[in-house]
């Protein structure tokens, strides 16, 4: 079986199209598939997906990290989304023929390369975490770039100080993650913050859900990372937000899946939305055509 990994690097740039395209374009080598470029002005953030063999994906994402380090100045960066560096976070996800342990090894290889060649401090998270307090990405980002610049914590790789312009970064290995945003029909960001607190796991809400409330394009948004769709899928999160919003006298304007998701998440959503439905991923025609 061919070894395939996915990598979804996140960068702190969502406004300057020249910089966005430079970071994305350099990732597109002949040996990987690089696609699904997403960026947002309010978040001032971009991400995309790279898929291929472990070594090819590592080489591809490293080229993007190099360009981001050169072009993004964190001293001038502002945006809604938490971040600690020009390249904020780089997760590796096993797709086929690759174990989580191999992705952990790959993440450490990239971290050492980044530290040695770009002189960037790197923190390891999720399955790659070397310290339990850094397993959760939100805990690594405490204080964000500005706080880390003032009081640097000991990284897992690289210097004990932030890069002068690129800050620091986080690298790791994890399961599939669904980035899911729900825009509320209100401009009151405090409503989004209240709902995010109600639904996120750390405050007693839905399991495997991380959520924050933001103002995006003038509207209130509940922005989520669903870290295990087999525990809580995007349709379940939507229904919970809909319920909490109704309690606060607010409706939902729209919602958005940000980036790529596994096919099984869609299958699961159909089965839970239409109770009792017998439906399998191998019933999807396009999947049969790809096999």
From TrEMBL:
InterPro entries: Formiminotransferase_C, Formiminotransferase_C_sf, Formiminotransferase_cat, Formiminotransferase_N, Formiminotransferase_N_sf, FormiminoTrfase_cat_dom_sf, FTCD. The keyword Cytoplasm applies. It comes from the Bacteria. It is found in: Cytoplasm. Keywords: Cytoplasm, Folate-binding, Histidine metabolism, Transferase. SMART domains: FTCD, FTCD_N. Pathway: Amino-acid degradation; L-histidine degradation into L-glutamate; L-glutamate from N-formimidoyl-L-glutamate (transferase route): step 1/1. Residues 176-288 form the Formiminotransferase C-terminal subdomain domain. GO terms for molecular function: folic acid binding; glutamate formimidoyltransferase activity. One of its GO terms (biological process) is L-histidine catabolic process to glutamate and formamide. One of its GO terms (cellular component) is cytoplasm. Residues 3-175 form the Formiminotransferase N-terminal subdomain domain. Pfam families: FTCD, FTCD_N. Its EC number is 2.1.2.5. It is an enzyme of class 2 (transferase). PANTHER family: FORMIMINOTRANSFERASE-CYCLODEAMINASE. This is glutamate formimidoyltransferase. It comes from Candidatus Woesebacteria bacterium GW2011_GWA2_33_28.
């Amino acid at each position: 079986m061919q070894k395939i990994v996915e990598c979804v690097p996140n960068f702190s740039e969502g406004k300057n199209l020249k910089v966005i395209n430079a970071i994305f374009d350099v990732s597109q080598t002949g040996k990987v598939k690089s696609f699904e470029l997403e960026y947002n002005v309010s978040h001032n953030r971009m991400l995309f997906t790279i898929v291929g063999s472990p070594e090819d994906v590592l080489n591809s994402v490293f080229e993007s990290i190099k360009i981001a380090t050169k072009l993004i100045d964190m001293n001038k960066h502002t945006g809604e989304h938490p971040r600690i560096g020009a390249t904020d976070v780089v997760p590796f996800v096993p797709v086929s023929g690759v174990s989580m342990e191999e992705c952990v090894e790959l993440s450490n290889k990239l971290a050492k390369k980044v530290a040695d060649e770009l002189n960037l401090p790197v923190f390891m998270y999720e399955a790659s975490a070397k310290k339990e307090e850094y397993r959760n990405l939100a805990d690594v980002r405490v204080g964000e770039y500005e706080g880390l610049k003032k009081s640097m914590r000991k990284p897992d790789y690289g210097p004990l100080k932030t890069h002068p312009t690129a800050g620091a970064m986080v690298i790791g290995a994890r399961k599939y993650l669904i980035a899911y945003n729900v825009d509320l029909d209100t401009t009151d960001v405090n409503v989004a913050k209240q709902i995010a607190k109600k639904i996120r796991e750390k405050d007693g809400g839905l399991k495997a859900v991380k959520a924050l409330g933001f103002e995006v394009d003038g509207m209130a948004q509940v922005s989520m990372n669903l870290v295990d769709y087999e525990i809580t899928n995007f349709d379940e999160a939507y229904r919970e937000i809909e319920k909490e919003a109704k309690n606060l006298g607010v409706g939902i304007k729209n919602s958005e899946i940000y980036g790529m998701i596994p096919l099984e998440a869609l299958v699961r959503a159909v089965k839970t939305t239409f109770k009792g439905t017998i439906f399998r991923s191998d019933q999807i025609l396009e999947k049969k055509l790809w096999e």
